[in-house]
Amino acid sequence: MNRTLGLFAIGLVFGGGIGFTLAAGNGITFDGHDHSSGHGGGAHEMAHATALEVPALDAPGIAVELTRDPVEGYNLHVQTTNFTFTPQAAGLGDVAGEGHAHVYINGEKLGRLYGEWLHIAHLPQGNVIVEVTLNSNTHRPLTVAGRPIATDTALFVE
Questions:
Q1: 3-state class of 108 per DSSP?
Q2: What is the 3-state secondary structure (H, E, C) of 34-76?
């Protein structure tokens, strides 16, 4: 019986590793989307690329503060005005003044943010830029007069 369990565990490890490798090699991420560069692109990729212009009057605003966590990593505090985080509406229709944020580390998307705080366990060494963009429920970046509603902060990580 112990041998059977051991072989089962080995199969799980290798099978899981192969599955993760195949997923990553085909552009599948764990944020719930297929980011492969396959033919056609699809409506989801177009939504990420097509900005949603909002009127300047009462437009959402964003500010960030990044502080070292006393235990490990960093804490990102995102403060917004005229904007409500609506995780329950992600992927649904756009509503003025609501959505979520996307967080980028040195230009690479870390993930979505559905609230004011995010713990970042690890940042790469050297010069680091943390950027946060506001996005609609359908993931479109929000813009005012063609400029993204976004902000960033820079730091040096030793």
A1: strand
A2: ECCCCCCCHHHHHHHHCCEECCCCCCCEEEEEEEECCCCCEEE
What is the per-residue DSSP string for 120-156? E----SEEEEEEEEEE-TTSPBEEETTEESEEEEEEE
Same domain, 73 and 122: yes
What global pTM score does this model have? 0.71
Residues 6+ apart with CB under 8 A from 124: 105, 106, 157
Q: How many CA atoms lie within 13 A of 27 on its CB side?
A: 9
Closest CA to 153 of 120, 118, 129: 129
Domain span holding position 89:
54-157
Domain count, the chain: 2
The answer, yes or no, to whether residue 26 has pLDDT greater than 50, is no
Minimum mean pLDDT range among 16-20, 36-40, 77-81, 153-157:
36-40
- Residue 75 and residue 150 in one domain: yes
Element at 14 (helix H, strand E): helix 2-25
